[in-house]
Amino acid sequence: MNEISASAPGKFVILGEHAVVYGKPAAALAINRRFNLTVRRDSEFRINNEAADITANPHLRYISGKNDMLPVSVHMDSKIPTGSGLGSSAALSVAFSAAMRALNGRSTDEGEIAKEAFEAEYFSQGRGSPMDTSASAHGYGVALNAPENDGGRLWDITKNEYAWRVSMIDVPPMTFVIGCTGIKAATGPLVERVRKYKDSNRFASDIVDEIGQITLDGMTALRKNDVTVLGDLMTKDHKLLSILGVSSKELNKLVGASLPYAYGAKLTGAGGGGCMVALTDQPEKVCEAISSRGGSPFIVKTGVEGVRVSVKT
Ligand code: PMV
Q1: Which pLDDT tens digit goes with each residue over 271-280?
Q2: Domains identified in the chain and CATH numbers
Q3: 132: annotated active-site residue
Q4: Measured in angstroms, how far is the CA atom of residue 268 from the centroid of ligand 1?
Q5: Residue tagged active-site, from 53, 132, 170, 206
Q6: By C-alpha distance, which of 261, 304, 15 is closest to 172?
Q7: pLDDT of the residue at 126
C-alpha cells in the first residue's frame, strides 16, 4: 500500500506585518525548520499510532474533507515551535494537503496546495492572509501585494471581499536568529488595536504607509542580498511597529540586545509577545545576547525549498 511522505517549512515575516492587512506589501521567508509527515490508508484515523478523532483538528478535518475523508494513519514530526508566529500550523496544512492530494491522485502543484492549505487555515482561524501557507508551499521567499511590474507572480488568492497577489522573491541563503519571548499573544486583538488606532489617527495611518514603503525597499535589498540596507530597514520597521503599539518590553529588550551584533532586528508576526528576528553574521553572539535577556534563541537559514512530496510503494 502507498505511503506518502511530505514536508513543508516554517517561515518568519521579514517586513510588512500589520500594514499588509490594509493592502500594503509584505514579505515572508521560509526557514530550515520543517514539518514532516507521512500518511497511509488505515482502517481508522490514527495520529502517531494512536486512534484519533480527526474532526478535533480543524486543519486535518478540512483537508480530509476536501479529499475523500477515508481513514488514514498520520505520522507527524515538527521542528517548528508552535504558537510563535513561525507558521507551524501553515506548514502542517501544506504538508498534509500535499500528502492527501498525492494519496488521492490529485495534483500536487504547489499553487493548488497553497490554496487548499490557506482554506484550511481560514477554516480553523476564521481569518488571516495567505502569507504563511504561500511561503511554506513555495519556500524561499514570497511577497504579498508587491507591485505587478516586480515580476515573479506565483498565484492570486481571493477570499470573500479580499484578494492577494502572491509573488516569489529569490532569497539567497542568509543567517538569522529568532528570539522567542515565551509569551503567547493572540493575533486578532493586536490587528484590532492597529485598526482602531489607524482609523482614528492620521499619524498612525501615515505610519502604516511608511511600513509599506520600507517593505518595498526591503524587497529590493533582499533581491540584491544587501544585508546592510535590509538590516537597517528591519530595525526601522520595528520602530514603526512599536509606535503602532504592537511591540512589548520583552520584544524591545531582545531586539536591543541583538543590535550590537546584527545588521538589524525586529519583532516578527503579530507582536505583543511571540518572537523577534535578527539578521546577523555573528549568530552565536546574538544567541548569547538574547539568552542573557531571558529569551530563547535559535539560528535559522533562509533560501530553503518549499513543499516536498514523495510516494513510497
Ligand atoms: O503572527 P503571524 O505570523 O500569524 O502574523 C500575523 C501577521 C499580521 O500581519 C499581523 C496579520 C495578518 O493576517 O497578516
Answers
A1: 999 999 999 9
A2: 3-170 (3.30.230.10), 175-301 (3.30.70.890)
A3: yes
A4: 9
A5: 132
A6: 304
A7: 81
